Amino acid sequence: MKRLKPVFAVALIFLCGAVFGAMSGAKWMEKQFRKKMAEGPPAVSEMITRRLARRLDLRAEQGDRVLAIATEAQREIAALRTEQEPAVREIVRDAETSIRALLDAAQAREFDALVEENPGENR
Questions:
Q1: I want to staple 70 with a disulfide (CB 3.0 to 4.6 A). Which of 27, 32, 45, 110 is the partner?
Q2: Residue 119 has what pLDDT?
Q3: Which of 82-91, 93-102, 112-121 has the lowest mean pLDDT?
Q4: What distance in Å separates the CA atoms of residue 59 and residue 64, rounded to the nearest whole number?
Q5: In the prediction, which pLDDT does 1 show?
Q6: How many CA atoms lie within 13 A of 25 on its CB side?
């Protein structure tokens, strides 16, 4: 048993390091993704193109065409979002009103605080 304690200690330290590394890596990836999203559609199109180029080993002309396609898709998505935004906002407001009607006064105050903390795009 005395011989196993150091082995278990080393294994536990290794496991803790692996868990911490995975959590840190996931957090970093999320931060990078949010950063790219904040940069707007051109950055997202470039990110998509780079990922596909790496995974599919695209030739230069293929990469250029993929970038053009992704850029056009982003433009169309932006137009659709602009067109649909008022309807989405109304749906979100109606859902918030319906939820608020189910809550008591204390819950409603907490709900309002949550809504304020997380404004989102659809408000």
A1: 45
A2: 73
A3: 112-121
A4: 9
A5: 63
A6: 6
Q: What's at 13, amino acid-wise?
A: I
What does the alpha-carbon distance between residue 2 and residue 87 come to, in Å, rounded to a whole number? 68
DSSP label at 120? Answer: -
Distance of CA 88 to the CA centre of its chain: 19
The token pair at 29 is: 């990836």
Confidence of residue 21 (pLDDT cuts 50, 70, 90): confident
Cα–Cα distance measured from residue 100 to residue 112, given in angstroms and rounded to the nearest whole number: 8
Structural tokens at position 102: 């189910």
In 3D space, the residue among 83, 85, 58, 82 whose CA is nearest the CA of residue 70 turns out to be 58
Which residue bears the tokens 């169309």?
A: 76
Structure-token pair, residue 51: 């990922």
